[in-house]
Each structure stands twice: as C-alpha cells, then as structure tokens.
Design a protein that fits this description.
The complex is a heterodimer of chains A (about 150) and B (about 280). Chain A is an alpha+beta fold. The longest helix of chain B is centred in the C-terminal third of the chain and has 25 residues. Chains A and B meet through strand 4 and helix 3 of A and helix 1 and helix 4 of B.
Chain lengths: ~150, ~280
C-alpha cells in the first residue's frame, strides 16, 4: 500500500508498504530514519517514541497506515541545524547517556513532559518516563538531565 | 464498512493489536482503523449518565472523568506509560476482552452498558454480559463497539491492582468498588482472577444489606471490623483465579481479599467525610 504523511516537516509518500508494517518500520526501513530505535516491539521500552500529530506515541504500536495524512516528528526532526535541542544538550552535559540506545526515546519523552510541565519534580519525571527503559545509567542522571533542561528552558 | 470487511481486525490505538502483529501471532487479512471514525470520539453527559465514546483514550478519560467515573480514572492512570495512555482506548480494551483489562473492573462496579452497532441495529449490552471467555466477548464480526454508558458517580469509588511495579504492568489481580449513595447500590469488579472479569455478587448483596439495615448511609458511622473482614472474604470467594506466570490462584485470592478490605475502608472514610 501507499502511505503519505508529513515527517519532520516534509511530505513523504512511500509505495510498497506492507499492510501490517508499523510506523516504526515505516520510519526506519522506508525513510532511513534510524534515530527512532527498535527494541521490544510491544510498547514496554519507549525507545521508538515519536510524536504523531503532536502526541507522544510508541511508533511500534501504530500501524503505518494509521499515519496516513498525519504529521510525524522523530528525534531527527526536533532541531533543524547543528545545535542540539536543550534536552539533548542537558543529557550530554549531565552524562545521562551511556550506550545511547534509549536516549532518542527518552529525549522525546522528556520534551513532551517539559511542554506540559515547565519545572517538573522528581515524581513527575519518573511518572512521565516510566515507559522508557535504560539498562545502563540507573536513571538518576536522566532525572538530573531533565531538571537541567527545565532550568535551561524555564 | 464493518459489514463488508468482517474478516478485518478492527483497531483503535493499536496498543494490543500491534503487539500481536509484531510478534507474528496475528496476521489479519486487513486492519480497520477506527481512530478516524468521529462518531467514536468524545465524552458526553446526558442527565444522570455519561457516554464515553469507544475511541476515548486513557489520557482523555483521566482528563475528563474524575468526578463522574473516578474508579475508571484511577484504573486509566495505572495503564502502561504516557505514550500508551495517549493511544490506548476504552473501546480497544473492551474489544480485546482480556480478563486483565484495567477498564473492566471499574465498569462492572459502576454497572456500565456497552453500546454496540452493526449496519442494521444498535444494541445495549450490560458489561457483565459482554465477556464470554478469555479474550472473547459477545461482539460479532459485523459489529463495532460505539460507546460505554455509565451512571455518573454519586458516591466514592476506588480501583486498585497488584503488580510488580507501579507502571507498565499487567495486573496480577485488581479490584474496583463503586458506591452509589443515592440508590444505596454497591458495585464491585474483579480483574485478572477468572476467565472473564467478574462481579462479586455475594459481597455486594452482603454490604448493601448491611448498609441499609444499619442505616449507615444516613449515619456514615465507621464500619465494624467484622463487616470489613466478611466483605473481603466474600470478594475473595467470588474470584475464579488460576495459576499462571503472573501469580498463583491462592495468592490472587488472598490479595483480592486485602484489596477489597482496603478499598472498602478508603471509600467509606471518604463517604463519611463528605458533606450530607
């Protein structure tokens, strides 16, 4: 089938998408946007988080066809130049990254939180990122990074 | 359209369906995306009831139903994570008909009705008649779940579930209770402890009878320990649990008794503290 949607501000029209492919497969395999990670494929890990019409979703659980006509933002689309997004910068500065696999999903989740809550407390950060698994850092530095990003943008 | 594509798997947010697809357990001939159907969206109040469109997400229920369906809101908050709550819907939860679905106990406790439509007719099914077996409901291949109708809460409600962590877990067992103080009704719902979500009918009858006989709705006096204990026993006895990967049957029965006692105390304290 053919899927047409806006990804990171550009209209994309892709033929030959299999009926049951997910939005995640569409982004990675058809558009080459591999910043969105594929891990659990069951909504448990958050590493495939993207925005669909501005709403944070697990792209592995969205049908590619469900994105028809919609607007998708991936980690590649959150900044348009050489500069890092403030949340990315905070993750680097605080050292909230080890292997980096979970980072795109966490950055998408943290940005979504900061859009809603300008200066979240620990509890709000933990709740917002409860669906993002990191197997390296133990989460404390991730929480520190979200605080740091909040201070930078607040 | 549903009638012309009976073999298609209907999906809302995809949070259940796509797990099955991704793991190769489901290869439907086609998928029918219900997220684009406007008639399934929205939450509307009509006199004493609220109509929750089947496409309402957990996030939308959390934002809109705090007063009218508090147990459903608590249950919605326990579902997955923010991205899951942004996509998962009440209609999808019912359609999957898992015994562990988090919406089901609050809907049983509140005495909800499911609105189901085909090309020819619309029918209303009490939620307790909706589930027939694990992951099976009365929904026919040519039908779509349109909405859930629920009486607006007039008394306290609660929902609680047992799991290994707060977020992202499927319930080992869960329990909901709803007090309708205007009618004197007490409703219950048990999740993850039977082939289908269940009501604890004997526990409901016992508590309704006790509250009426002792004029408790008027006095709001504290409940005797023996009443709380008996209620817990009857809820545990009302479950039909099995052993599985998430827990054993005896554990589930025990935990349900604990949840039932605590829920009763929480709700009764809340009722006693309300202005009358």
């Amino acid at each position: 089938m053919k899927v047409t949607c806006t990804v990171n501000g550009r209209e994309q029209s892709v033929d030959g998408v299999a009926e049951f492919e997910s939005l995640l497969q569409f982004l990675r395999d058809h558009l080459g946007l591999t910043g969105t990670k594929n891990a659990c494929e069951q909504g448990e890990c958050g590493s495939c988080s993207v925005l669909l019409d501005g709403t944070l979703v697990c792209s592995c659980l969205v049908g590619a066809g469900q994105a028809e006509g919609r607007v998708v933002t991936t980690i590649e689309g959150i900044t348009d130049g050489e500069d890092l997004d403030p949340v990315q910068a905070a993750f680097v500065e605080v050292g909230a990254i080890q292997c980096g696999f979970c980072t795109p999903g966490l950055v998408m989740g943290a940005r979504d939180l900061l859009e809603r809550v300008a200066d979240p407390d620990d509890e709000e950060i933990r709740e917002a990122l409860a669906g993002n698994l990191c197997r390296c850092t133990g989460y404390q530095k991730i929480i520190d990074a979200v605080h740091s990003a909040a201070r930078a943008t607040f | 359209m549903r009638a012309e594509h009976e073999q298609a798997v209907a999906l809302q947010g995809g949070t259940d369906v796509y797990v099955e697809v991704n793991f190769g357990r489901l290869r439907p001939v086609s998928l029918l995306d219900l997220t684009r159907v406007d008639e399934l969206r929205g939450i509307a109040r009509e006199n004493g009831t609220v109509r929750i469109g089947a496409g309402s997400t957990y996030h939308e229920m959390i934002e809109n139903l705090e007063k009218d369906a508090p147990a459903l809101v608590i249950a919605s908050r326990t579902v997955g994570s923010p991205p899951i709550r942004n996509r998962g819907t009440i209609g999808g939860n019912l359609g999957s008909a898992s015994p562990a679905g988090d919406c089901h106990p609050p809907l049983l406790a509140a005495g909800a009705t499911i609105e189901i439509a085909s090309a020819n007719e619309t029918r209303l099914v009490p939620v307790e008649d909706f589930f027939v077996a694990p992951k099976r409901s009365v929904l026919r291949p040519d039908e779509v779940i349109m909405a859930v109708h629920v009486e607006r809460a007039t008394g306290p409600q609660s929902f609680s579930k047992v799991g290994v962590r707060n977020a992202m877990v499927i319930a080992v067992c869960s329990f909901a209770i709803a007090f309708q103080s205007e009618s004197g009704r007490v409703g219950t719902g048990i999740g993850s402890a039977g082939p289908v979500p269940l009501r604890a009918l004997e526990a409901e009858r016992f508590l309704e009878g006790h509250l009426a006989e002792s004029r408790r709705w008027d006095t709001a006096a504290p409940l005797e320990e023996s009443v709380v204990a008996r209620f817990g026993e009857l809820v545990a006895a009302g479950a039909r649990p099995i052993d599985d990967v998430r827990g054993t049957a005896p554990y589930r029965r025990h935990a349900l008794g604990v949840l039932a006692r605590r829920s009763l105390i929480w709700c009764w304290n809340e009722y006693a503290g309300r202005p009358r």
